[in-house]
Amino acid sequence: MIPRLASLPETAPLHAAFCAELRARGFAGDLSLSGADRTVLATDNSIYQLTPQAVAFPRDRDDLVRIAKLLSEDRFAGMRIAPRGGGTGTNGQSLTDGLVVDLSRHMNRVLAIDPEARTVRVEAGVVKDQLNAALRPFGLFFAPELSTSNRATIGGMISTDACGQGSCLYGKTRDHVRALTTILSDGTVWRSEPLDPARLAGVQARGDRAGAIHRDLDRIQRENAALIAETFPPLNRCLTGYDLAHLRRADGLFDLNAVLCGSEGTLGFLVEATLAVLPLPGHAALVVLRYASFDAALRDARALSDLAPASIETIDSTVLALAQGDPVWDGVAAFFPEDAGERARGVNLVEFVGDGEAVVAAQLTRLTALLDAAGPVAGRRGYTIARAEAEIGRIWTMRKKAVGLLGNRTGEARPIAFVEDTAVPPENLADFIAAFRAVLDRHGLDYGMFGHVDAGVLHVRPAIDMKAPGAESLVRAVTEEVVALTQAYGGLLWGEHGKGVRSEFSPVVFGPLYPALQAVKAAFDPGNQFNPGKIAAPEGSSLLTIDGVPTKGSHDRAIPAEVRAGYDEALHCNGNGACFTYDPDEAMCPSWKGTRERRHSPKGRAQLMREWLRRLAVQGFDPLAEARASRTRPGWRTFPARLAATLRRRDDDFSHEVHEAMAGCLACKSCTGQCPIKVDVPTFRAKFLELYHGRYLRPLRHHAVAALEPLAPWFARAPRLVNAAMKLGAGRAVGLVHAPTLSGLDLRRETARRGVAFADPEVLARLSPAERLASVVVVQDAFTSHYDTPVLLALLDLLIGLGIRPWLAPFRPNGKPLHVHGFLGRFERVAAANAEGLGRIAATGVPLVGLDPSMTLTYRSEYKQALPGRELPQVALVQEWLAARLDARATDPDAEPYWLLPHCTERATAQAAVTAWATVFRTFGLSLAVLPSGCCGMAGTYGHEAENRATSERIYGLSWAKPVADKGRTGRLLADGYSCRSQAKIVDGVRLPHPVEILRDHLATTIPAPRLTAAAH
Prior knowledge:
The chain is α/β, with parallel strands linked by helices. The protein is 42% helix and 12% strand. Strands 12, 13, 14, 15, 16, 17, 18 and 19 form an eight-stranded antiparallel β-sheet that branches. It has a five-stranded antiparallel β-sheet with strand order 5-6-10-8-9. A hairpin with a 4-residue loop joins strand 5 and strand 6 (119-123). The longest helix has 19 residues, at 824-842. The radius of gyration is 30 Å and the shape is globular. The protein starts with 12 loop residues before the first helix and ends in a 14-residue tail after the last helix.
């Protein structure tokens, strides 16, 4: 039995008093002192971990004014705060051991769009892709591009002066800022925009903090003008963070925004921004140029830049190899062919954009003519061209995943961010990178590289095991060498991702100008309370250091290596935050989107699991040994102890906070497919639940769900009685709502009527080769067979109509519900028995297919984990099998299309299976479009659990409600997941057909029927 774990140390009295006073003064947002929230917000996308004392989620500008005014009171002079947006910073910019102020939860509205002026006004918590989705109907977009655009906030972009792909054409974030609204340290609400001398004089006459700031900064700029011009390098990625070089513009205007952009929350609270936006380019083309070496790709970039493309991005062979193992590769593989059987060792992606097709075509022709005339010189191998918007989008998506893909390397040493955004003049880049690689080679480090070669910025991530003793010293040694290297080549350590903890090098880089930056900080924040220790520290205060802040690895060292290996699914989360995507039509992560609580996300749950394991280790407890023991001992033996622990339950057990986050997971597995690191929440969640409920009794509904599969065939013998019991509240009595009703069809009678026999290995073994090739075994699942029997019968009818002989595998529990709820010992036994039975059938050579995506995909993942080393039966999804065995035919161009809302597990972990439905429909001459969609919110039994029902329907409303409302009653909107169809019926009263029902109905009118390929005869 796991021990009780004390929660995090209580919030320091100063911070607790601050939060209490804040609430008393009318703070309308949320305040959290919980150990779970503090643990989750202790990390970002960096190597660091700094636990805050409390977290504030302001609801509006007035809440931020309340925080600032309270901070300025003498009794709270010791308070420190750090504003936070998407938490995607790679250098600890938003980390603090004080109060985190998270502006992303509530302050995320697009306030006004002015298409004529081409401006937009937004709150700081708006996500970049969210903004561009709002601008798209007006034909506009916010230009600065970055790989984290689906979760990075505008406030965060401004605070780091972010940019990425296309910066040579579009510039940095600050180039698009027209006005900022900032809460200053005394609570003043200040709207900053360029000021002429008369208006500047008027502001300087004010007696508040705004007046003092304008007086001081004007003086600092004038007194140091020559030194400023000498210190700030003339790079595309110029030195941001207190950018005094652009404080006074060429037209003479005084622009405070130059200093605020890139200030990383050290000067005040950014509330709103007015931004310039641009017309969407009407046309684009992307050239994928392959090279024999990465160095060749870098050196060729200068010649390519002379053609003035919108952007040139480069990727090395390490990143390309990792991409090839990710689902994203399926959509882009055709653009990266091998040359003479050898993969490219470097790639340049060269994009042209323009308003007219002819303009883009002319630019493209210049490049292709150059390439064709020169031939395979300078390491060039060949090229492909993407012209369609969807094709270009898929390639850029692959490039955006590069950061995460590097983190998905195997082994304990993983590529990490600490010298990942160096910038040098582009003409120096190839030589600089050669020297950079020499540094890493001397330290024996592997690494991956990619980046914006046209701007002289390359993202380099050395692979270091931060859990290893001495890792911090290695980080320092490499960083100091790279700092010297960037200076030698006329560049910067921090070209794109901000300074954060790396601010310790500010005095080195700024030299004699550093006191001026200290004066800027003092002008805005005389109490040094806003994100102290970053960019510049006032006289008498110190900057943070790269080896002086605790790291995630230093925390994880306390966990024994064998325990880390046993919970590998959680331990390698690097905090990239891909699970925080704003897009409701992406599968990952429904619980985050439905709650907006970061602990209810893969990243949040992974951080909580790490901390939980660390606390167990501190107490000397071995969770692996306990898990092994719990799977063999009978439950009745531990019942008295579990009952006693439950009755004596104390709220201060950290396991309760972890459980609250784990219980909110839908186990949809979108993280296992879409997280670039492949964090697998359902797996480590099941392991946690197994141990948690080894101490605390389970709710009755867990036992009811666990018994459902074995009981379903018995229920089906008395469907009226069982359905009546459910309608009378039998489900609600154990915490289940909207319990499905049995179909009421006698499956044995219906299969016998169709001449479908149950699969017997001995009978199948006697089939002739021709009979075997024309046969298939349908593997049952409890839900389709007993609660949606007409769908199973439609599949059998379809197969018969196609000239295929279907056999029905005898029903055995699949075990998926057991795994979801952490009954892992029982799941292993069920999986072993089912695998053995299906294995005997598979040994006959007759293929196996399943109908429900979630249940069928269990054979590929959960079974593999539970039964390591065993040969497992291969169970294909029915559309995968059909797509490989039916000849394609021309689709009627005038035919009205069907639309598919696939199961989110299928979309996230088996994208090829989703695409296969369209292939199968084409064999019938039908058109099927897969609609963008996230999770329906049901996810097996999640949406049937009373405590989850409200969140379940909220998730449904984010993505599924609109397509069901628009198309659900046409009979042409399809869903292949049983739980998805159930959810649509519960919420909207609409029955969505399964694709096999449409194909079955269409078969009678298809003359001739689709032909089987030779492999199926």
